[in-house]
Amino acid sequence: MRAVEPWVEGPLATFLDESAARLTLLMTSAGQVLAQHGFTRAFDVMSAAALGAGIMASTDELARLMDAPPFRAMAHQGVQHGLFLSGFDTPQGRWIGLVVFGPESSLGLVQLFFERLVVDLAMKAPTEAPSNRVLGSDFEDELNASLRTLFGQ
Amino acid sequence: MQEFATALDSITRVHGVRGAMLVSLSDGLVVAESSMDGVDGVPVAALTASLAGRLRRTTEAAGRRPPTFIHLRATTGTVLAVPSHDDLLVVAIGAPDINVGLARLEMLHVAERGI
Questions:
Q1: String of b and e for B78-109 (b: at least 16 CB within 10 Å)?
Q2: Number of separate domains in chain A
Q3: Chain B contact for A77 (CB, 8 A cutoff)
Q4: Is the pTM for the entire model greater than 0.90?
Q5: Nearest-by-Cβ selection for A112 from B26, B46, B53
Q6: Closest partner CB to B42 (pick from A77, A106, A112)
Q7: What is the pLDDT of residues B31-62, one digit of tens each?
């Protein structure tokens, strides 16, 4: 498990222990990766983050068309794996969690402990607003630094 | 849903039972619940289904048949669970002095009858 922000590590480690999730990705609603567990290649994690953020953006738009509040979570159940995707608000802005779990866990467990993760993150998050430097001229440096942190390279 | 409620009411009428529910065994999600006063059914469903699944895998690994009745007794309460044939788990939550025998009979009846 690796996280760009150190305060994320404790709550995420607890979630991983309790839920037995195989893959977990925390990202901003723009797809910027904040923490990951289980991914071994940077390409995979960036692809998953982009796809997860895209799915959430699509469902947000669907909800808007229906004059409904944004959907909180979405689940896909496969034969071997399940996927849970949920958006949530933190003091640092809106984040998205993407969780892949196998038969050793269940959707109920993942949902249960994900809700606790959201509460834990809200408690541990620094109160100051996040900086917008990732959109500045040093975007590539920031991206490479994040990838190095997330994969220890 | 009325069928679910009727089936679960037969369990919640037993002395000491505070609530009963049907849980999807594979997902750990609540399918139906009855009289869950003061009890949040969502974590109970997820954790009980996880426990039942692990017990099933444990008995299978030991070359035994899967459990037909699970009784988890704590100092402040009791959780009972009966796996059904159709991937459902009948769960009852109650006081430590729950009438386990009668609750077990009602739960087995619901599980065998199918919903």
A1: bbbbbbbeeebbbbbbbeeebebeebbebbee
A2: 1
A3: yes
A4: no
A5: B46
A6: A112
A7: 998 877 788 899 999 999 999 999 999 999 99
